[in-house]
Design goal:
Elements: H1 26-34, E1 40-44, H2 51-61, E2 67-71, H3 79-94, H4 98-107, H5 115-123, E3 130-135, H6 143-154, E4 160-166, H7 174-179, E5 183-187, H8 188-191, H9 195-204, H10 211-221, H11 225-235, H12 242-248, H13 254-265, H14 270-279, H15 287-294, H16 299-308, E6 312-316, E7 322-325, H17 327-335, H18 340-356, H19 360-369, H20 373-389, H21 393-401, H22 405-410, H23 412-424, H24 431-440, H25 447-455
């Protein structure tokens, strides 16, 4: 498991955590090197993305001058204790006389000045470049500590560069810091393993996969470092059926579920978890769709909160309005939905939202996923002509081919839709049965659906 997820004892809080099976990642080392142009480099991603391992290996691989490391612990959540720890970490690498000034500044409680400002003033006496890595900064809850760090960034000290590792975004005005060139960022999308890196990771533990198997695993895990490492453990066993394991490996795997429950979901508020458990039926979500599904009006607020907690892998599409959950997080959340009626209701709300916006393909997909066959049949009957003429026949075929044969034959719109989709691109499997089932029940359909179905074979 990535070293960043292990609580660091107090006696080693100033040491770079040690991890095994490190993959050399020059493309990310280059990103960290470029971050030197800004006073702070922010690595923000949820648990298991390999932030600590990456920065530790970067320090080992590149000539970084005088690196200092501080793993923030529960006791570092007051201005006095936090800045004393910062001063201790820096004092270990800067040499005299700056080290003496730093320790004195951190312990000078009687001066009445802010400890952040005292440490910042002491840093002025540091000669030459110094990198201070602050790991697990999400443990800080003190507004005063965050404010002191922000002052250090907006009024940077020459030669001091911060590298901040956190599971959630700091309470800073990041948009302003970006515009001012004061912050460089590395996110989950950057940290995600690409296939060559994943291949090297598996080679280090003696696992060899075909190119297709490797690509499938990277896609299924979103390149999530913890997911890849958790997959490597059973794949090392003698005689393991690799193809069978990969076909079933998901967020439902007990080791993945346990990790995500404890490290990703458990820290979330009850309100956030209730929101996630409802919107997890969606592959993509925006604020308006979230409101339609949850029946609340706080979708924008909740999406912003969860995005800052890095629960979403990325924003998708223009304007950053659409988001998606990491696939394994979605698997875990969906596995907790045990009430069939509630699941169907959520899918119905989402399908109706898409229908109102004249997006029938998404509406049909959600209706089918929720087992709402009458709604799916109604949608197909009305929209099959438009979908097929717009070149969406293969997608319609894929959706409807997953429906059981009995259900297809019992709903003439579904049977006719599948027949029409297949006829357009020359796929004639079961056409006669599908057309026969649709024709037998055609007269019972409403006029729009009847016209759409008849078109499919005329």
């Amino acid at each position: 498991m990535p070293a960043e997820e292990v609580d660091t004892p107090s006696d080693v809080k100033y040491a770079v955590p040690v991890a095994l099976h490190i993959v050399d990642r020059p493309r990310l080392y280059d990103l960290l090197d470029l971050g030197a142009e800004s006073p702070v480099t922010l690595l923000s991603a949820s648990a298991g993305w390999g932030k600590t391992v990456l920065v530790g290996s970067w320090l080992a691989a590149r000539p970084v001058e005088r690196p200092a490391w501080l793993t923030v612990g529960p006791g570092d959540d007051t201005p006095q204790t936090f800045w004393r720890s910062v001063a201790t970490a820096l004092a270990a690498v800067v040499g005299t006389p700056a080290d003496v000034l730093l320790r004195r500044a951190a312990d000078d409680r009687g001066s009445g000045s802010d400890p952040a400002d005292r440490v910042a003033d002491a840093v002025r006496h540091v000669v030459g470049p110094t990198v201070l890595v602050l790991d697990d900064v999400h443990r800080v809850t003190s507004p005063e500590v965050w404010a002191g760090l922000q002052r250090l960034i907006t009024a940077p000290r020459a030669g001091l560069r911060l590298v901040v590792l956190t599971r959630r975004d700091p309470p800073w005005p990041l948009h302003r810091l970006r515009l001012a060139g004061l912050v460089a960022e590395v996110r989950a999308a950057d940290l995600a393993f690409v296939p060559p890196e994943a291949r090297e990771l598996f080679a280090l533990v003696g696992v060899e996969l075909t190119t297709d198997q490797l690509d499938l695993l990277v896609q299924r895990t979103d390149g999530w470092a913890a997911g890849l490492r958790l997959a490597a453990l059973p794949l090392r066993a003698a005689g393991v059926d690799v193809a069978r394991f990969l076909a079933s490996f998901s967020g439902d795997d007990h080791t993945v579920t346990a990790y995500l429950q404890s490290e990703v979901l458990a820290p979330q508020s009850e309100r956030a978890l209730r929101f996630l458990e409802k919107i997890c039926i969606l592959d993509l979500v925006c604020a308006e769709l979230a409101d339609a599904v949850t029946g609340e009006d706080d979708g924008a607020e909740m999406l912003a909160e969860l995005a800052s907690s890095n629960l979403f892998v990325q924003s998708v599409g223009e304007g950053g309005r659409w988001f998606r959950l990491q696939g394994f997080v979605t698997d875990v959340l969906r596995s907790r939905m045990v009430e069939p009626r509630a699941r169907r209701d959520l899918h119905r709300r989402a399908a109706e939202w898409y229908r109102r916006r004249s997006l029938p393909e998404a509406a049909i997909r959600l209706a089918l996923a929720g087992g709402l066959l009458p709604l799916a049949a109604e949608l197909v009957g009305v929209h099959v002509v438009g979908l097929v003429l717009r070149g969406r026949g293969r997608e319609l075929d894929t959706m409807l081919a997953a429906v059981s044969r009995d259900a297809l034959l019992a709903h003439p719109e579904l049977a006719a839709g599948l027949a029409g989709a297949r006829m357009v691109y020359g796929h004639d499997e079961e056409l006669a049965d599908l057309i026969g089932a649709a024709e037998a029940r055609l007269e019972a359909l409403p006029a729009p659906a009847r016209a759409g179905c008849a078109w499919c074979w005329t």
